[in-house]
Design a protein that fits this description.
2% of the residues lie in helices and 43% in strands. It is mainly beta and 481 residues long.
Length: 481
């Protein structure tokens, strides 16, 4: 696809700190066309560990507008406390968080200095998939500047989203190389009780990297290979909290391929949002599985004086998939003057329920792969940017059975519109919110309902294990009037 444009750069948006705010097998990914390096290593020698958690800097909208510039380039930067060649946005492995409000406009000059091409996807955001908005079918070539213009509806849901490369078939190497950051849509605090409106908030961006020589590995990526799991680009940072203090954590899996099964030892997560949608009723969990691309907004309460560990537990995606080992991610240190207890909310945001709306179309979306784990399919076909696989009508609700014919889990993702997960392997499911990511069990199926609202155009459906997407597991959905 050769849709290109060159425009002059806009003024940079305000950059502010963000610590406390008020108000599948052995398949390999394609090359990212970066320089090759010596033999790979599974760990970073001499890396800094245990430093205080640093929230990413922020690019913040003002008076309904975020006007900014993002430069994509390969640079030697700090990655987990060591200088490595990586793919960067604005010169950082952990780039700025984009912070907007419902109804905002974002005008973004996207400058590419990476070969052979790239593009930008605003993951989970309800916005047009066409033209200069969330159009993942374009290629932005080296030394080109593409002007993205997003006009978000006032109905946009508050929560945690992310942005990353979606340049087929280079998504996995480019995201694994570093091209991933967080987006926050403000407004979640409005559902919190008054005592928690000024809660301390942290981005907990889960981002992993493999090392090859003095570079972050981008070629021949193996999903199950040893990797370095970071929080906001840091190795095992320290997160301070006071005993009894409630914090809002924005948990985001912005890795290219891997899953996380999160546990905060001795504590529970109180979930207030999923995939950018606030929940209708909060719920507490000892563990949370974040499949590739998923996010949770959670409340965490400081325990007694002392330390505990935020970890990812062992997770197995199936006989043809991968076994991800346990890893410590961060140390939470509870200290200082205790905070008087505050009742956590139960009823939260207005419910979003598609279950009683008429269904216009029922369809099956089947995920499959070859025995070698090198080719992946949706309904028996590999991705073709010139073919429309599903046609949907604006304003209607469809019910999809997403079937997994393989022996490994897949992370199902739809662009443009969120969906309601109705059942898993025939068992009714109530997820308390709409979502844009859902795990499909090996040799299992899920049923979802999705409403086509506001926007027409070509969008995509795919597995968010990006090695799988790049190897064919993506399809085009066209929404028409």
């Amino acid at each position: 696809m050769g849709f290109r444009t060159k425009l002059s750069c806009c003024a940079a948006a305000l950059l502010v700190p963000a610590t406390t705010l008020s108000g599948c097998g052995s398949d390999a990914a394609p090359s990212a066309a970066t320089a090759s390096s010596p033999q790979p290593s599974s760990s970073v020698q001499g890396a800094v560990q245990g430093a205080r958690l640093q929230d990413p800097a922020e690019l913040v909208s003002r008076d309904g507008l975020l006007r900014t510039r993002i430069v994509v380039e390969r640079r030697k930067v700090d990655v987990g406390g060591r200088k490595l060649w990586a793919l960067t946005y604005n010169g950082r492995y952990m780039p700025p968080t984009l912070r907007i409000r419902p109804g905002d406009t974002v005008e973004l000059d996207f400058v590419n200095r990476l070969s052979p091409y790239t593009n930008l996807h605003v993951h989970g955001l309800h916005v047009s998939p066409s033209g200069h908005a969330d159009n993942v079918l374009i290629h932005i070539h080296p030394d080109e500047t593409f002007h993205y213009s997003y006009r978000f509806p006032k109905s946009l849901k508050p929560g945690t989203y992310w942005y990353h490369s979606h340049a087929h078939p280079l998504s996995a190497p480019q995201v694994a190389g570093g091209l991933a950051g967080v987006i926050v849509v403000d407004g979640l605090r409005e559902f919190l009780p008054p005592a928690l409106r000024n809660v301390t908030e942290h981005v907990i961006a889960l981002k992993d990297f493999q090392v090859q020589g003095d570079a972050v590995k981008t070629e021949g990526l193996k999903i199950g290979a040893p990797t370095n799991r970071t929080v906001n680009g840091q190795l095992k940072p320290t997160i301070p909290i006071r005993p009894g203090e409630v914090q809002l954590w924005r948990l985001a899996n912005i890795s290219a391929n891997i899953y996380y099964k999160l546990r905060l030892r001795g504590q529970r997560f109180t979930v207030v949002g999923r995939d950018g949608f606030p929940v209708d009723t909060t719920f507490a969990r000892d563990t949370l599985v974040l499949e590739a691309g998923a996010r949770f907004d959670v409340l965490v309460t400081g325990g007694p004086t002392g330390k505990t560990v935020l970890e990812t537990l062992p997770y197995n995606t199936g006989p043809a998939g991968n076994q991800f080992p346990q890893a410590d991610l961060a140390t939470v240190v509870s200290s200082g003057t205790p905070v008087p207890p505050v009742a956590l909310p139960s009823a939260f945001a207005p419910p979003e329920d598609l279950s009683r709306l008429p269904i216009a179309v029922r369809r099956t979306v089947a995920f499959s792969e070859n025995s070698a784990g090198t080719k992946y399919y949706i309904n028996g076909k590999q991705f073709d940017p010139n073919r429309v696989d599903f046609t949907s009508k604006l304003g209607t609700v469809e019910e999809w059975t997403v079937r997994n014919d393989s022996n490994e889990e897949h992370s199902f993702h739809v662009h443009t519109n969120h969906f309601q997960l109705m059942s898993i392997n025939g068992w009714p499911h109530h997820g308390h919110s709409l979502q844009d990511i859902a795990d499909v069990p090996a040799k299992g199926h899920i049923v979802i309902r999705i409403r086509m609202t506001d926007y027409t155009g070509k969008t995509v459906v795919h597995c968010h294990i990006l090695n799988h997407e790049d190897a064919g597991m993506m399809a085009i959905q066209e929404i028409v009037k």
